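Hey, I was hoping to borrow your eyes for a little while. For a while now I've been wondering how a particular protein folds. The fold is given in discrete form, as structure tokens running alongside the sequence. Could you read through the record and tell me how the tokens relate to the sequence? Take your time with it, there's no hurry, and the full record follows here:
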Amino acid sequence: MKICKCILVYFCVIAQVNLQGQSQKLNMELLSSLPSGTEIGIGIYDQGEIYKYGFVIEGQQIKAVENSYALFEIGSISKIFTTLSSLQVLEQNEINIASNISEYLAEPTSKGFNEITFYQLMTHTSGLSKFPINIIWSAFRSPRDPFLYYNEKRMFRYLNGFTFDEKEQFNYCNLGMGLLGYSISKIASQALDSIMFQETFLPLSMKASSIGISKSQYPLVVNAPGISGRPKKTWKFSNMTKGAGNVYSNIDDMTRFLKFVFEPRQSQKTLHTQLLKMEEEQISIDQNESMGLGWRIRKDANKYFYHGGITYGFKSQIAYDREGRSGIVILTNAVGLSRKESLKLKKICFQYLDQK
């Protein structure tokens, strides 16, 4: 056992040496505790400098690899891009975020639904459940893709019969963010995929990022292909759910996003104004955390903007400190739905920023 531990420490040290000055700011021991077989991509913005690193956990070893181009599901980090793109569409159509979404959707008729606003969906204060109870039928139909068959008919059937008793209280809601993306697509008369590409990914030169993946992108995903050729442990989403967590990206693109956070070009001025709006504190969750538009905000020490992502085959985390001009994103293909691995990534990101 002592020999194994020594080997682990040795490889952690080797990995740290390769981090070119960032080693003292990353908890490599915690990173190496991710499950064996996990591939990891790390992107760092540090006061104008960009660093990119890749690793694979193999047993008791952590090995450096080049994977900045490789695609990962980023899960709920997608909500940041859904919110940012939505703010763009709302402004272009002169719609206030306090407006009721029912004004732009004809189907629902329930009183509770008619009072849901874009603002509430962006801040998780709509009163909607995290998951609608009737999503179970989608999961039964395709356990591999539990969100794929949750369609408009099921969504509106749920919404029309739901009583919203706890509005204005924070309740993290995948359903709400999916509904936000769907509503925006109706307003713009475009698929959310196209909206997000035109309004966010293209202006930021995030050309590898997309909602979902095409067959031509399969070889770029870190997970190995299955019998059908589709990468293993990847999820498909429906039009009603994709805004909650269907984005794929890589470290190259996510570091471009971090650079945009701190160094927007003149052509990105409008988009950056929306990002700054997202950073404004909207509601307090507890004494240590609050909610912006899309972003979670840690406020117990330095103010960090962050979000994590969990799907069955991937775990991710992004966080940045505007005052300290630094940010970090970690993408992994850690497997499972447990929050344990995600909490490790969150801790690593916060520890990195704390040492700035």
User: Anything to note?
Assistant: The chain has two domains: 1-68+301-356, 72-295. Confidence is low (pLDDT under 50) at residues 1-18.
